[in-house]
Fold this sequence. Notes:
The complex is a heterodimer.
Chain A: H1 2-33, H2 39-51, H3 54-67, H4 74-98, H5 102-110, H6 115-144, H7 147-153, H8 163-178
Chain B: E1 2-8, E2 11-17, E3 20-25, H1 32-40, E4 47-52, E5 55-59, E6 64-65, E7 73-76, H2 88-97, H3 104-117, H4 133-146, E8 151-155, H5 163-179, E9 183-188, H6 191-197, E10 200-205, E11 208-213, H7 215-220, H8 225-230, E12 236-245, E13 250-254, E14 259-263, E15 273-277, E16 284-287, E17 297-307, E18 311-316, E19 321-325, E20 338-342, E21 349-351
Parallel strand pairs in B: 3-9, 3-10, 7-8, 8-9
Antiparallel strand pairs in B: 1-2, 1-4, 4-5, 5-6, 10-11, 12-13, 12-15, 13-14, 15-21, 16-20, 17-18, 17-20, 18-19
Amino acid sequence: MPLDWLGLALRYAGSATVLAALMGLPLAWLRSHRRFPGRELLDAVANLPFLLPPAVLVYYLLSALGIWKLHFSWDAAVAVSAVYTLPVLLHMMRASLESLDPSFENAARGLGAGEWRVFCRVTLPLAWRALLRAMLAGFLRAFADFAATLMVARNATPAFLMLPLAAVATLGIALRVWRPRVPA
Amino acid sequence: MIQVRFAAPGVDVEFQAASGITALFGAAGAGKTFILDAIAGFATPASGRIILDDEILFDGASRVNLPPRHRHCGYVARQWALFPHMTLHDNLLFPLAALARLPRLDRHRRVKEMLERFALQGSASRRPRDVSPADRLRATVARALIGEPKMLLVDDPAAGLDIALREEWHKTLRLVRDETSLPILLATRDADTCFELAGSMLLLNRGHVLQSGAPRKVFDQPAGLEAARLLGIRNLFPAEIVALDPGRNTSRLRLENFELTGPYLPGRLRGDRVWLCVEPGRLRAAPHDGAKPSANQVAARLERASEMPRALRLEFAGGIVAEIARREFDPQPKDNEEWLVEFPPHALRVLGCP
């Protein structure tokens, strides 16, 4: 049984990280390579999941997802977790893209490469380690996430019992067996 | 042929460069790299126009700003910027992949030719960090040239190199200069590089062109005090012209506390205030033996003597610096001695108003 929880949690966090990376990488590239109006606003919106208490964030997201009839499903849980993970990914990916020596990308541009080719042949091969690190950090945040999972998956099928929830459930059982004395 | 005229915050330049090497000479922060970046398209000036062989690369008025990949400028960056994750062969192949019309076989043939031309066959299959710095330098130039650019921009990568490597670098650039007819813009802080390679130079200061011309001419006749200082010319003294004698082809100049006889100064008037400059190597100096100083000799106290690789540098009170050959003076001179410094009339040069 515990292995099921672990597998489920890994799959859940992995899907959320991939989804967040798909959103985060283009945004991080845009933020590190282009100056455009409203970039501070983008930063602020991207940072919201950091600033809001997780419960509030999940409540808003569920309300939003409810409009699209995604309520209490695997997809909804992954989407919520991806949004929750996005700021970490975005910050780390942006930092890793900005720390890249621009002379490499400029050299490629000067040698006739378009932006897409520069990204695939130069930026990505040079930055993939740092980008992977960012994804790992995002994965850990999604994996350790409790509030989002609890609120989205609470009422769903038992198959939704993921590691953090399973840990709580196990703790609950342990507490019942142990019966600590609570002062009145 | 490249024509450049643009302005940006802190930079305002106008110049042309034909085939051959044109050196952009200036201290750090003079705007050399910005000028190269603006031509290559990595930086955008506020206004102006850049034309390369009748093609407008940038025009502030009509908002033309070609992306770097359509500008056909080879760029050799100061950090070399060979792609570290590719072999030298793949580095050279990279620019050709953008030329879609070139068949695959032709691309490889061209890479092979280029590797041979720059003596890189031995290290073609290795990555940049695994080859010698000399190979890396040549590979950078080869990669910049393989796409057949219309001009070459070089942000002197030799700035921090050792002497042997710098000679290798000069050799490579000479090869490129002699084998192609490209205009080459070379940003450098090194006067030797200017003399050795460049047919003409632009003296840059804080984003402005102070002077342009052949290196010999610029170094011999700096356009002013600022230019002379940038060129590293020592021995600059304010002076006043007290007499001019066209008959004997001489002039008389009064410095702070002595007078000198110099060559006749056409176009100057008596009473003009000028800057006098003398190259340290053209001054003569000897310890004061008590005799009366003859014409153009000045008694000065030696403040510091220091050894140079091929000369002895003597710094006197009043800011006079002389460099004499080591063999002319064997015993180590003592500080605070009285010396006689001679200013030969033909060594005196006069710059504009102070």
